[in-house]
Amino acid sequence: MINDSYYDDYDLKENLHFDSKTVHGGLGCDPITGAVSFPIFQTATFRHRDFQISTGYDYTRLQNPTRQELERTMAILEEGLEGFAFSSGQAANMSVFGILKPGDHVMMSDDIYGGTYRMCEDVFSAAGCEFTYLDMADMDQVEAALRPNTKMLYIETPTNPMMKVADIALLAQFAKKHGLLFVVDNTFMTPYFQRPLTLGADIVVHSGTKYLCGHNDVIAGIVVVNSPELAEHFRLQLKTRGNGLAPFDSWLILRGLKTLSLRMRKHDENAQKVAHWLRGHEKVKKVYYVGFEDHPGYEVNRKQSAGFGGMISFTLDRPETVRKLLSGVNMILFAESLGGTETLITYPLTQTHESIPADIREKLGINECFVRISVGIEHVDDIIADLEQALA
Ligand SMILES: *Cc1c(COP(=O)(O)O)cnc(C)c1O
Question: d(Cα 9, Cα 246) in Å, to the nearest integer?
Answer without folding.
Answer: 25
